Amino acid sequence: MARKAVVLLSGGVDSTTALALALRQGYEVFALSFDYGQRHRHELQAARRAASALGAAQHLVMAIDLGAFGGSALTSAIEVPKNRSLGTPGSGIPVTYVPARNTVFLSLALGWCEVLGAQDIFIGANAVDYSGYPDCRPAFLEAFERMANLATRAGVEGTLRFRIRAPLLAMTKAEIIRAGHEAGVDFAWTHSCYDPTPEGLACGGCDSCRLRRRGFEESGVPDPTRYAG
Length: 229
What we know:
By secondary structure, the protein is an alpha/beta fold.
């Protein structure tokens, strides 16, 4: 019987690649996405496309309201910054950081793991070509894994040993795109833009668009993204 894994799936390049890699490793994959009060739903549409096309055993979209707190350009009326210097990862935390988002997402994935009898949670976190989010760092993921095995019945009773899998953590965006391409990802399924047009065209100027565009240029894989500018 295949091992089960929960994969956090936003619908972007990284999480979709993580999903494809989990499937390639032989896992029975349960994809988990969140309607968390974000600015738009294009990424959820992308997540549904990817989960269906790649063959996830189940895709759950859970509704939670991180927008009730606000505090982020992705969940409130704060303007999404455009064409800023990407700088050095970790040199500054941008306003697109959603407070405690990965902590919340991983916690809910952990709960589903307990129910499913799954030991592994895959997350597309990256600590090389990213926007400086503190919850994408190796130290955070290692700490969460320790917590997961302290805070759960399965962990305490020793029936499961939970593991946080971050296969993209040390890759550049170009390396991620090449890995996803080799694993069968059609990146036309995916969506990365923080501030798309109502029709879903990528703005081209937010951090996520610029990292995505640069990644495709450096990877040699054709970029299927439809940019507004």
